[in-house]
Amino acid sequence: xxxxxxxxxxxLALTAxxxxxxxxxxxxxxxxxxxxxxxxxRWMIPCLxxxxxxxxxxxxxxxxxxxxxxxxxxxxxxxxxxxxxxFYVALHYTTAINxxxxxxxxxxxxxxxxxxxFGTLANRYQIVGFAVTLVGVLLTxxxxxxxxxxxxxxxxGDALMMGAVLVYGLYTVALRYKPAIHWxxxxxxxxxxxxxxxxxxLVAEQAMGLxxxxxxxxxxVVLYIALxxxxxxxxxxxxxxxxxxxxxxxxxxxxxxxxxxxLAMLVLGEELFAYHVAALVFVLxxxxxxxxxxxxxxxxxxxxxRS
Length: 307
Description:
The chain is mainly alpha-helical. It has helices at 2-6, 8-29, 35-67, 69-90, 96-103, 106-118, 124-141, 156-174, 183-207, 216-244, 246-250, 256-268, 274-296. It comes from Antarcticirhabdus aurantiaca.
């Protein structure tokens, strides 16, 4: 049993499960804790929990951290704070199922950003895969009626979520510039930056009279988000990458909408429409085709990494 749970597939499947639970938790938070309070607490709690474990790594890595504080600050601001702020606000306007299906387009955003910014080579399978995935995302964003594109009648929450996907995709691409420090140092610094960066959002929300500090349900939701999507999922994902490599591990993000759709039906009672199923087929099929094509094509080439 222990060996099975230590298998990289099990670790990465749990990572996807915890990430899908983030959308469910965010939906359960509506009316019990406000988005910016959630974002702030999500990073403050891990900072307190991780400090005793990361202190020695932080002390050893401090020269590297100080030399690269600019890129680390940007990664924490965009990848942790801004992404989650958009994510939790989006859940006030659209369903958890929509959010998770749209989130599954992230690997294609990463692929496209690498191609446009760093010259990563693409082949016909990847191009077709991107197009197929785009159809799935549009099906979700337009609630099955792509004709709404002509009138620009989008759901506000879906638009926010696609913005969040773009932000996190660019963050993922920018990770190539992070310094070579211990993973505990990396996670702690990014959490710390995210906590600080979330304060202006929290102040603005308070000034507009929209802040809501957690009641009992809100506190349980925030605790889940801090422990599982924030700490456990990041740790399991890093271990999974170490065991089977980044390219293979990244594919497991596509389990998120599958687990999430099941959780949304079981926990939230959300209805699964035919366009959700079609979107899942398009999104997962397109990403699978792109990855299969990458394996068949020439090795990827990028511009040299800066020191």
